[in-house]
What we know:
The chain has helices spanning about 5-10, 20, 30-45, 170-195, 210-220, 235-250, 270-285, 320-335, 355-360, 375-385, 405-415, 425-430, 445-460, 460-465, 490-500; strands spanning about 55-60, 65, 75-80, 80-90, 100-110, 115-120, 150, 200-205, 225-230, 430-440, 470-475, 505-510, 520, 525-530, 540-545. By secondary structure, it is an alpha/beta fold. Helix 6 (about 235-250) crosses helix 10 and helix 6 (about 235-250) runs antiparallel to helix 11 (about 405-415).
Amino acid sequence: MNKRAYSVALMAGACLPVAAVAGLVAWGDSASAQGEVAFTERCASLAGNGREDLVISTASLQLAGPAPAPPGAPSAHLPAHCLVKGTINPRTGVGGREFGIGFELRLPEDWSGRFMFQGGGGLDGVIGAAIGTVANSSAQPALTRGFAVVSTDAGHQGSPIDATFGLDQQARVDYAYNAIGEVTALSKSLIAQLYGQGPGHSYFIGCSNGGRQGLIAAQRFPLEFDGIVAGDPAMSFSRLGLGQVWNLKVLADISPRDAQGRPILSRAFSDNDLQLVRTSVLDQCDALDGLADGMINDWQSCGYSPEVLACSGAKTDSCLSAEQVDALEELKAGPRSSSGEYLYGPFTYDTGIASPAWRGIRMGSGDDGEMTAGDATLGLGMFRYLQLTPPDPDWDPLAPYDIDDLLARIRHQGGIGDADSPFLSTFALHGKMIVYNGMSDQGMSTPHIVRWYEDMVAATGEPGREAVRFFGVPGMLHCGGGEATDQFEMLDAIVDWVEQDKAPDRVVATGNAFPGVSRPLCPYPKVARYDGGDPDDAASFSCRE
Length: 545
């Protein structure tokens, strides 16, 4: 390949074999070409290893070019980098199924000295492109900013809503926490092999299950990461699963039946019913922060109850039936033990209750008893195969059950996969962590996360308070969307905190739902309060308790 052909290939974002790039040394007058060759050869050498439990299928140079992205996602340009793909501990497991911890590691030629673990989502099972995508961010991905980035399938292959891997003991362990430790250790080893030194700073960034993984990293691997961002974390995963199947029973009890006698969950509430609740919540709680602007900042003072919408007579479009009011209160509270302890909940009332996302996860769609709600398609399968020990594929969420018995059956997987330990004394000595959650998150409970935060401060002491901050995002649905300022840069915030000791006293957010509007996100227990001035400008708000 001549110099012109190489340049054309470079602009096209081509992937070149080692032999083709090696020919570039013939130019002789190009130090950069020789550097490219050296980097390519070092990249290819990562395929060689003496580990019997590791298979590296790819170790090749990727030239600069556009990032892989789903339709509608912001465009990004990736730098030249080394792409490494492989599997840790490939094996044949229960039922003859093939397992192994799959990973993808991307190592930029122009490295900043930083390493980022990109968290997964749902039940994993797929390897996301390790480019350093950050939830809620409009900035370039971390790889473009010089980070080495890794992602994993968490030890099994399949759909992110397929929980059947839970039939295999080791797959449960890998998903719960082991994949994080194994992939982190391997990534740091490969980084040192390629660059001649390990990372100067290591970060974990994720949302949803990726948020749970971030908390797992702090709790089970407290020395591995300097900075962690855990967004909308599925932290108490076993109890969250219990909450999802609880929701199905609550809605089934007030739903009309189809011809086969099955509850039609989608008709438990009409869209108009949910809009009534949204409007009523705003009327009561929007202005508590000093400004009626469509966002409920002072959620701690809200105290809303749908009883204010209860019909005095027959059900009409302007009120809710007594059964609907009771069901909303049960959904808000979540399941409780026989002693009245909240198991996963309560939830906050916010504008997202009228969103398609809330309907989708709680009630689904359709005019028959086929359960299409996310609580069924993801939650029920996850509960049956992963959270119950032993797995119980035929467990019926609509049959009578004893809640304390279910608590005993989920404690085994909860003990290894729930990321809600409050004791972070080692992590707090050197690391920093930002946790955030959408106040309209249709799956994750903000009060539950806040309860963990308060327990963490009590267990860890002042170092925990100094090292961990929680931010609620008014109106935001799960990991983004909703009537919210849902665009903010938590990667920048955690890097500044770790490397410059600039603690995030406020994080400015914007969003498509409110064009031209900015708001500060405030660390708990503070909330954004309007001080006067331009109501569209975050500078007109201060973070106060």
